[in-house]
Task: structure prediction
Amino acid sequence: MKKKSVAGSISLVMIIMIFSRLLALLSAQVYLSFFGAGGQEINIYSYAISVPNIVFNCFGTAIATVVIPIYAGHIARNEQVKAKHFADNLITITLALTSILVLLGIGLSFVLPKFTAFADNAEDYSFAVKALMIMMPVMIFYALNYIFQGMLQSIGKYNWPAFVSVPSSLAVILYVLLLGDKFGVTGLLFATFFGLALQAVILIPPLFSAGYRYKPSFNLKDEDIKNAGKMTLPVILGVSAYQFNMFYNVTMIANFKGMVTLLTYVQNITLYMVLAFVYSITAVIYPKLTEQAAVKDMNGYKKTLTDITKTIIALLLPVTFGFIAVRCRLLELIAKWGQITDSDIKAASYLLIMYSVGITAVGIKEVYDRAFYAVKNTWIPAANGFVIMAVNIILSLILTRVIGAYGIPLAYSAASIVGALVLIFALRKKIGQYGKGIPLFFIKCLLSALIMFAVVYFEDLKLNTIFAADTLSFRIIKLFIPCITGVIVYGICGLIFKIDYITNIFNKILRRG
Result:
């Protein structure tokens, strides 16, 4: 019954997360359709909302990492007073540190735009400075959001943390529809700030109903705070490398006119949607790996890791080639509205190809990061973060000279592949041989995905000729028929090549029938 309850909770969280990501994508589509993707103001907006998010994410992830084990440990031992004191202390200290970070961010608002093409025009530079200054204080609400999420998850309340991004997306959509004409992109900045602040605010009622009441406390010598400080260092190092990557990519692409907004939009389609799916899987697998490592069941640990690696490969390889095959039809259906032009769609489709190349590697990296955490090793994932960062920077500098802005997402994908391979071989060195059959499994999935791609690609060409008119119904037909064909072809190839993941699903369907 307990397993069933946990599985049900995970399924509901996954549904909420996917809905949240889709709504975030819709909100981006709404403001892109209204303001266009090529205008300098909207690109400055995209830059300004990315910077504080990127800067704070490394600290936020570290906070989330330490809150759950310490706070949940006290709750599990029925030490509610200690749990409350830790939460009070952490909130106060974090607010103080974040306030300093906000002040530094406001000061840097005059400097950061100078590293972009926004500095070429005095008006653009001035707006970029103003936009950054508006958005920097949102880091305070990011901090509260991470802490509140960790506290709620520690007491078994998962749905509200999964729901947090919904109000922020709705705030943007409502602003554009009701006030966009009146206050323009400047108003959009304030609406976005309000929506992001809501992410923390909406978590207060469930905490209140759970019995928590905040009381200011500032004690840096507290043992829990000391332990939290020790635990955060490797996480901060690893995540900061990732966040620097994202900051570097945003800054680099800001030098290409009209590309910042398109890059962030394509990231929402590829990376963030895929990560929402992967995080749903790791939510189940990470505790299992941790438990197996704790009881020294390394055979079970290796089997679990092998199975989940195969699952990631079997699901994300066809997604990679599927995205590439139907990229134009996908973008035409979801993005080509309002001020979005054909040239925007074309540019976004190339960005989508470049990001798609690394989808499977991103999924594998996330799983193997947690595989290391499960055996209490946080330093190798941290070091690997810097490897990925170095590869990303070097390749982007080279590739942008060859293919311009499109070299930035391609460099990121290549760096993700390198990072995934580093973790795979490093883990083998640490725990010994594992992953029997994975190389052959990968080849079978790759062949199946390539055959699927060929069929879908030529079908797409034919459908685009038959349904030439640019209507909504034709756009839907031109996307969904190839998608259905792709699933069928990949499934048939999986049965022919005896890909066990696909044959198992097929056998379950037959048994139920």
